[in-house]
Design goal:
Largest sheet: 7 strands, mixed
Number of strands: 42
Pfam family, one: SpoIID
Number of domains: 5
Shape: globular
Mean pLDDT: 92
Structural class: alpha+beta
GO biological process, one term: sporulation resulting in formation of a cellular spore
GO cellular component, one term: outer membrane-bounded periplasmic space
Protein name: SpoIID/LytB domain-containing protein
InterPro entries: Bact_Sporulation_Assoc, SpoIID/LytB, SpoIID/LytB_N
Radius of gyration: 35 Å
Strand content: 35-45%
Length: 685
């Protein structure tokens, strides 16, 4: 038995020695096979260092590699690999462990990285190049005197800590950014470029913005591996997406334009033509092509069409004003482009001139110069914040000209509003040295809303708190509580309340609407809000509210409106509509206000305001600071009296509140810090 056992042990030892010897000899052979594969451009797709090896092949460096020496040991085989560049030799190591069951050769001491050069120094033995690689400054020596200038991005072949060679990168300069996201960037003239997954960004500006100019892209195989901003971005020009008549759509089926001066029509591909003053230019769309008719001549463009003039540009096809009887004239230049059989119209204009069209559209001129100056600062701040966020980048714009941003060119310019803009030239509001999101609205109910209880962030509602947009009482003359539904009802019904906003006719208002009128309005609007914001229009299924398509007959009869949640200032955040055919939960004040629009074409719905005035079929519920007094007969809902206060979303600065505070003796600085807490006014330019 002992002999058998000893025999087995000896056999195991012999097999182990044979396998070790085979593996030992195989490792040495694999070095040559590995280099030969590299020289011949073989694929190493399964290799963990695939990208590095692939680039060595692409750079043809692999053809120049040779074995300097090999070393065999108990742990495996390693080889020193040489690369000759001029009179200098650079070496790195490949190795294979005997414990490695694969035939993979592992490479050490060579890397290929992108970096932007900061400076170059020379000593007796080497040149020292200081590069910024990722977020680190790295000094790399090399015996070579490379012709590199400070600020240039290079792809470096680094062997044993020294720069052995440079991998070529193609340089493209974007003249103006028209679109960007995490995957790509599109320039006005150069077109679209795809970012690499590990793109490196350098330069004087951290962000990317629509309209930004002169950005250097460094490309490898037509993919952007590095981006450099050369100039600090100054948001002194804004790009406005122009809606059609009545601000109904952000696109147009037809555009008719003229000017009191000569219009230059141009495109990047087709040059330019001059159009005499007062000549109509008709613009139509054919798929993704733009068709222009000027007199008897027709022109077709596949790219953007640019309109410029020394005088105002007017659009016969767009009507503005409360009665839609204003033909707006615009400063600045225009771009028209076609997409999916729709025309899009962008006004690029100096920021201060843009404000000439915003301030009178957003605040009554009768409020006076001081109020208009405060409005100018808030509107400028809001615009700059949107320029930086490039919110409408999908359309190559910063803002739209409607309430989705701030209303622009909906009335004529006035001397006093232009003066207010000029008096505050360049002034904006910052919080902790960052431009704030300067929300404003018409009238408060006596309390403002917390911004995060009005809007969400991504799919989160409430959103993250914004420290300078808080809920607070607005100069109320008396002690009021809104801590529960009964207290809020008493407050919102009380027409004797006095505060900063009590001079507004919308400070208190009342609507009486029948169940049939409200049902018709909800059924017309519920599916629209679901399509616009499906995460905020939920349907009860079993015991759970879910995201479900709205049926063709969602209500039947309304049984009850239930206020599920109010914000700190009293605004409704969540509303349940309980009906015969279904129960729905609506989140966010805008969805609630739009769903409960006080409109009925058969029997108009009236809003009775504090000053005795009556408005019919108002386009949206004025605010979400409301209380529902629901009337029943025989256990059936018949009518709802809506007691409300304020007009608008309720977060940030109240325009009527500004007027009230000025009358009470507050300064402009006091008022701005009241509505935007702990902020400061800065000069942008």
């Amino acid at each position: 038995m002992k002999k058998v056992l000893m025999g087995i042990i000896v056999l195991v030892i012999l097999v182990t020695i044979m396998l070790f010897t085979y593996n030992y000899l195989l490792s040495e052979k694999l070095v040559e096979e590995f280099l030969q594969d590299l020289r011949e451009g073989a694929s190493f797709f399964e290799h963990p260092q695939h990208e590095l090896l692939k680039e060595l092949v692409e750079l043809e460096i692999a053809r120049e590699l040779y074995v300097v020496s090999t070393k065999k040991g108990l742990k495996g085989t390693s080889a020193i690999i040489g690369l000759k560049k001029g009179e200098f030799e650079f070496t790195f190591t490949v190795e294979r462990s005997v414990t490695d069951t694969s035939k993979t050769m592992n490479v050490h001491g060579i890397d290929i990285v992108n970096g932007i050069m900061i400076q170059k120094d020379e000593n007796e033995e080497n040149y020292l190049y200081v590069f910024k690689i990722d977020d680190n400054e790295v000094g790399l020596p090399s015996p070579h005197d490379f012709e590199i200038n400070s600020g240039e991005v290079k792809r470096l072949v680094v062997i044993d800590g020294k720069i052995a060679a440079l991998s070529p990168l193609d340089l493209v300069t974007i003249d103006k950014v028209m679109f960007f996201d995490g995957q790509s960037i599109t320039g006005e003239k150069k077109g679209k470029f795809i970012f690499s997954k590990d793109i490196m960004r350098y330069g004087v500006e951290d962000g990317l913005y629509i309209g930004q100019k002169d950005i250097d892209l460094y490309l490898r195989n037509n993919i952007v591996v590095a981006l450099v901003t050369r100039e600090k971005f100054v948001p002194d020009t804004i790009r406005v997406l122009i809606n059609d008549t009545g601000f109904k759509k952000i696109y147009h089926e037809e555009i008719v334009v003229s000017s009191t001066g000569t219009i230059t029509v141009s495109s990047i591909e087709d040059g330019s033509i001059l159009v005499a003053k007062d000549t109509l230019i008709k613009v139509n769309v054919d798929g993704n092509s733009t068709k222009l008719t000027i007199g008897q001549n027709e022109y077709s463009y596949n790219g953007r069409v640019y309109l410029t003039s020394e005088e105002r540009i007017y659009f016969e096809s767009i009507k503005r004003g409360a009665a839609l009887n204003l033909k707006p004239g615009y400063r600045g230049s225009f771009e028209i482009y076609a997409s999916e059989n729709k025309l899009y119209l962008i006004n690029e204009v100096a920021l201060e001139q843009y404000l000439y069209g915003v301030v009178p559209s957003e605040m009554p001129v009768s409020f006076g110069l001081q109020a208009l100056e405060i409005q100018s600062i808030a509107a400028r701040t809001y615009a700059v914040n949107n320029i930086y966020s490039s919110r409408f980048r999908n359309y190559s714009a910063h803002v739209v000209d409607s309430v989705s941003s701030q209303v622009y060119n909906n009335t004529d310019e006035y001397q006093i509003t232009n003066q207010a803009v000029d008096n505050t030239n360049g002034k904006i509001i910052k919080y902790l040295n960052k431009v704030i999101d300067a929300k404003f609205f018409s009238t408060s109910s006596g309390y403002t809303a917390k911004a995060n209880e009005v809007w969400g962030f991504s799919d989160q509602f409430p959103g993250p708190e914004i420290p300078y947009l808080k809920s607070k009482a607005q100069g109320l003359m008396g002690r009021y509580s809104i801590s529960n539904e009964q207290a809020f009802a008493a407050f919102i019904k009380d027409k004797s309340v006095v505060g900063f906003d009590s001079g507004s006719p919308f400070f208190r208002w009342e609507i009486k609407i029948s169940e049939k009128q409200l049902r018709k309005s909800i059924e017309e609007n519920l599916s629209n809000r679901f399509n616009a914001d499906p995460n905020s229009v939920l349907t009860l299924e079993g015991d759970v509210f879910k995201i479900l398509e709205i049926s063709e007959s969602p209500l039947g009869e309304i049984k009850e409106l239930i206020i599920v949640k109010r914000g700190e200032g009293g605004n409704i955040m969540e509303l349940e509509i309980v009906a015969k055919n279904g129960t729905y939960r609506i989140l966010k004040e805008y969805n609630i206000r739009f769903t409960l629009r006080p409109i009925c074409q058969e029997i108009p719905v009236e809003i009775h305001r504090k000053d005795g005035s009556i408005l019919s079929n108002y386009s949206i519920l004025p605010s979400a600071f409301v209380y529902f007094d629901q009337k029943y007969e025989d256990n059936k809902l018949t009518d709802i009296i809506i007691y409300g206060g304020g007009n608008g979303h309720g977060a940030g600065m109240s325009q009527y509140g500004v007027q009230g505070m000025l009358k009470a003796g507050y300064t402009k600085e006091d008022i701005i810090s009241h509505y935007y807490e702990n902020t400061q006014i800065f000069k942008l330019y």
